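User: Predict the structure for this protein chain, please.
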Amino acid sequence: MHLDTPKKTVNKSSKEVFDFLNDVKNFETLMPQNISKFEVINDQRFLFALKGMPEIVLQKKHQTPNSQVILGAASDKLPFTLTADIVEISDSESEVVLSFEGEFNAMMAMMIKSPITNFMNTLSQNLSEI
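Assistant: Here is the predicted structure, written as structure tokens:
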């Protein structure tokens, strides 16, 4: 399953956006209001839970300075990645697209598509306001 958010303009340079996303504790400010738990495990991992959903541990998997940050599920039970692609427009403006990539059976994909889409859109919207 692959999902992309629409491009969002962020009034920050690509370096500032990259640095923000590369610090896992900053993801707390991007989370939706229905978050029930957020905990930084270490500088590479954080745990979060939305009301009515299981806890998910995300960890940094890969980064390309000023252009991409990839987070992935720490568990193999729900294998997926969350990628932020950052494109600099000017010294003080960037565009960001968030992508979700996961391998799920058809039933699971049908059940999680809407909540994941809403979650991604919230992250994207909140990112545009940093």
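The chain has one domain: 2-127.
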